[in-house]
Amino acid sequence: MLSTPSPSAALPFTPGSPWLAPLAGYSDLPFRLLCRKWGCMAACTEMVSAKGLFYSTANTMRLLQTSAEDQPLVVQLYGNEPEIMSRAVYQLCSMGFAYFDLNCGCSVNKVVKTGSGAALLKNPRLLLEMVSAMTQHAGAGRVGVKMRLGWSNQEIVYLYLAKPLADAGAGWITLHPRTAVQQFTGRARHQALQELKTVSSIPVVASGDLFTARDALQCVQSTGVDTVMFARGALMDPAVGMRYQHLLQGRRDLPSNRDFVLRLCREAIDVYRRYSTTRAVLKLRSLLPRMMRGLPGAKELRKRIILCKEWQDLEEVMTSAQRHPETQ
User: Fold this and answer.
1) How far apart are CA 258 and CA 328, in angstroms?
2) Dihedrals φ, ψ of 250, to 5°?
3) Which of 54, 102, 153, 211 is the most buried (most CB within 10 A)?
4) Which among 106, 219, 265, 308 is annotated as catalytic?
5) Is 106 marked active-site?
6) pTM for this prediction
7) Quick check: helix, strand or coil at residue 13?
8) Euclidean distance between the first and final Cα of the chain, in Å?
9) pLDDT digits (tens, 9 = 90+) for 32-89
10) Pick from 264, 242, 265, 262: nearest CA to 252
11) What's the CA gap between 277 and 41, in Å, rounded?
12) Rounded to an integer, what distance in angstroms lies between the CA atom of residue 114 and that of residue 111?
């Protein structure tokens, strides 16, 4: 189900063109299509191992599943060997993919212990070699870097990397303004986004603590970044991209009531059913409760959803929720 991106599917770098982040375990084709319908203008795959491409495992191929509607698409790769990364991008280009992202932000132990992900922030020279290796086949401007401020507060490198990354052919920088050591604790330092934007000659995409449309609007207005990338905010509300666009344009927000949320949940079920197998029910058992958080009766709905094993089970829960809201 791989499709060649059309020449017109250029990456958007404007405030009104929010992106969907590479969410491990969630940013698969069905979820990307759901978020695209509701305002996300570009999306990233889940993190793909550069080495894994050469084994063509079923899991790697699943991560690369796409469609004509899933454009523009950025393939996020991780690894720590420039030669392997170069070969991976070459292979992906031959398969029709056009845009790539180097993961320099993941701080999960199984990734960083190999020298990949956020560990690359401790070795800026290698990081730049990786970007150069990727642009060798993708071309200048078609490779981005998603990174943190640095490995720790004693190893802050994001400003130092701005010019070398542009010189290496990078087309954009996505910054999650926390250190790798922080992971997701504390607060994202949005002031750092403004600082990076001041020194960067290439677009800057904001990430981190953008839970709501208003969070994103305030970030753009206070930092001057080119656009925003929704991660956990999209998991809780796949329509957050459109909500943000409406706020930016001064338009009325989308509803947040029970009927609208249940509609989004129903659409999630429908899109997963079209593109996935019964195993997708397990993913929806995790995704739907996130989307329902805060609704009246959400606790009971979550209890019923996590017991679902088949598509019919999910249908029955949703039908019951829509017909008998007073009993939930």
Assistant:
1) 11
2) 75, 20
3) 102
4) 106
5) yes
6) 0.93
7) coil
8) 39
9) 999 999 999 999 999 999 999 988 778 888 899 999 999 999 999 999 999 999 999 9
10) 242
11) 26
12) 6
